[in-house]
Amino acid sequence: MSVHVKEEPVLVQNCDVENSELVVFNGNGVSELEDFGTCIDDITERVNQLEQKVVEVEHFYSTKDGAAQTNTSKSNSGGKKIAISQPNISKCNSAGKDKTKGKHVSSPELMRQFATMFRQITQNKWAWPFMEPVDVKGLGLHDYYKVIEKPMDLGTIKKKMEGSDYSNVREIYADVRLVFKNAMKYNEAKEDVYVMAQSLLQKFEEKWIHIMPKLVEEEKKQADEEAEEHANKQLTLEAAQAEMARDLSNELYEIDLELERLRESVVQRCRKLSTQEKKGLSAALGRLSPEDLSKALKMVSESNPSFPAGAPEVELDIDVQTDVTLWRLKVFVQEALKAAANKSSGGTNAQTNNNNTGEINKNNAKRRREISDAINKASIKRAKKA
């Protein structure tokens, strides 16, 4: 014996799933709904806060770089931007340290050695043409700035050294070489200024070689210290993120428990679906589209993992489903049928793609037969039990 689910809604008193009011609670339903609504709002707020923390942890481990103190990431839900703040473990860093971070800072001893070398160059008898900026206007050097991109002189370098404008000797070395290179670039090789600049540059390079070993030693030591500092900072950041991840796990577990308690409380206060409502729900399931029917069967499998929601043929016994599942199905079916009715009424003139429509109707009929067979089997079971 087979039961065919009719195309038209099954007329069962007080169980029209499409138009029935969802009276869920017994007693003072309005007050209880408000209480549950408040609980849901609180949980939602907590989940939103946890979501931001999860994004921070995911961002940290995806980049493996804790150097950025503030970045922008997009949340997985809502598409809103969230400011991600990494734990600040270096509040005591001074502005001067941040300014020279990653660049070698020469020791006072090395700076004194270079100052001695620089003084010897400036006291040379041929240094006088290079002690002041080139008098471009006075000498009528109209093309000077076209040839020389960055003018430099020993007097300017001396002032910058006295004002502590240089942080390492390589910067001073580069400017001193620039003074002589500019002179050699603008003047011809046969001119005196060219010969004087070439001679002083050679003497300067010879003196520079003597302080190079000390400079290389300092740079290597500083690089090692910075690498160690970075590694320690990274370890501290990873420890902080790991602790945050543990806290998130604990908070999510607590929310799961709270949701479970709330669900049990709701179930205890829910009225049970009547036999007539179950019959109406069974009939309404047969009118769902294949896509919506698959969703409905998935809801059943969530509360009953052994239920074969994806099987070609399924047997669905309404009477053995939990109250939570029945209410979920009732709400889902009501919304799905309303949406389908609105869509159908708004597009009655769309009669193209007859082949596709026929295939869909064929699938609908097949799924309805499956549900009808399942309901029929369930009815037979109840009859035998009676």
From TrEMBL:
Entry-linked SUPFAM superfamilies: Bromodomain
Keyword DNA repair tagged: no
Stored InterPro entries: Bromodomain (IPR001487), Bromodomain-like_sf (IPR036427), Bromodomain_CS (IPR018359), GTE1 (IPR017413), NET_dom (IPR027353), NET_sf (IPR038336)
Domain Bromo, residue spans: 122-194
Region (Disordered): 342-386
Compositionally biased spans, kind Low complexity: 346-363
Sections of the chain in a coiled coil: 216-265
One Pfam family it belongs to: Bromodomain
Keywords (A to Z) from UniProt: Bromodomain, Coiled coil, Transcription, Transcription regulation
Keyword Protein biosynthesis: no
Residues in NET domain copies: 263-344
Record's protein name: Transcription factor GTE1 isoform X1
